[in-house]
Design a protein that fits this description.
Blueprint lengths: L8 E4 L5 H12 L5 E2 L1 H4 L6 H11 L2 E6 L1 H5 L4 H15 L7 E5 L9 E3 L2 E2 L6 E2 L4 H12 L9 E4 H7 L6 H12 L7 E5 L2 H12 L4 E5 L12 H6 L7 E4 L6 H9 L4 E5 L6 H6 L2 E4 H5 L16
Parallel strand pairs: 1-2, 1-3, 3-4, 4-7, 8-9, 8-11, 9-10, 11-12, 12-13
Antiparallel strand pairs: 5-6
Helix pairs in contact: 3-5, 7-9
């Protein structure tokens, strides 16, 4: 789902297709693509019509999810969204792909006019059946170039607060990250929050003028590892490195996933306390004390995990 810090894909649909569209959003999210669905993004008290119009205009793509359920409805707010989308299509360059029609099942595509000899049916649509997985990959191929990978800096807020003695200068840390890796931290930082320490760090970063995407870390029902759904989005395929600031082994799956995706990883932590398994999973390790003093953090061979 959209976090507000990345270009998103607007998913237009009727309520009867909510379950299939939720699956669509989840599968795109697993591929590093942010989506926007009204029932998730519109906050209590917000003017929902204005929120939807703004989201359509700001969207990297507009995905129209057509179905038999849509065709059977005499009226729906999806029609309003389509009217707004048609207006946006008229404003965009002719060679700009933005409006993406999908068929969730065997249904007809409305022949709404957009311009002379040009209608919604003029766009090549994508069938999500009979092979859903193949269709998702096709859709992701079209969307991904216009939807940059999420922020490549991921901070384990609770670990950083607990491990830093004396307290770390967060302004200096963020500046060193910018200098060393050339990352733009202005849009948002990914920050895990498990307890009050993490919430305190989020508040500190926001006072420094950073927009913080605070992710509540939850334990999986089957084990002790923390829920890394948002972190795995940050590990979407990219040539730029994923920078993790943490010393806990909870984030080994994040680095392993990034490696499988071909994305280089940099681990920044205190050498005196970092989990060896986490260090072994990273392509490069940088001691946080040296990093804060201006050290370059030269690459090291992957550490070998401690024997059981």
């Amino acid at each position: 789902m959209a976090t507000g810090s990345q270009p998103h894909v607007f998913l237009s649909h009727v309520r009867e297709d909510a379950e299939r569209v939720e699956r669509l959003a989840s599968d795109l999210g697993a591929r590093g693509i942010e989506t926007w669905i009204d029932r998730h993004q519109i906050r209590p008290g917000e003017r929902w019509e204005r929120a939807i119009e703004d989201a359509i205009r700001a969207g990297a793509f507009f995905v129209a999810c057509f179905s038999q359920a849509y065709a059977a409805k005499g009226s729906s707010y999806m029609n309003e969204e389509l009217h707004l989308a048609v207006r946006e299509v008229r404003r965009k360059p002719l060679d700009r792909s933005w409006f993406l029609p999908l068929r969730l099942d065997d249904c007809s595509i409305p022949d709404w006019p957009i311009g002379p000899d040009f209608s919604i049916r003029s766009f090549q649509w994508l069938d999500m059946f009979p092979d859903w997985t193949w269709s998702i990959e096709r859709l992701a191929e079209v969307i991904r170039p216009a939807a940059p990978a999420p922020t490549a800096v991921f901070i384990d807020g609770d670990w950083l607060q607990a491990a830093a003695r004396p307290r770390i200068d967060f302004r200096k840390l963020l500046e060193r990250l910018r200098q060393s890796f050339g990352v733009d931290l202005t849009p948002a930082l990914q920050l895990t929050v498990r307890d009050q320490q993490g919430r305190n760090l989020a508040a500190t970063l926001e006072r420094l003028g950073y927009s913080v995407d605070a992710v509540a870390a939850r334990k999986h029902h089957a084990g002790n590892s923390f829920d890394l759904t948002m972190a795995l989005r940050a590990a979407a395929p990219s040539a730029s490195p994923l920078v993790l600031i943490s010393g806990g082994s909870d984030f080994v799956p994040l680095l392993e996933h990034a490696r499988r995706q071909g994305r280089p990883t940099v681990l920044i932590a205190f050498d005196r306390s970092v989990a060896r398994a986490l260090m072994a999973a990273a392509d490069r390790f940088v001691d946080l004390d040296a990093f804060m003093c201006g050290g370059s953090g030269a690459s090291r061979p992957r550490a070998q995990p401690e024997p059981p």
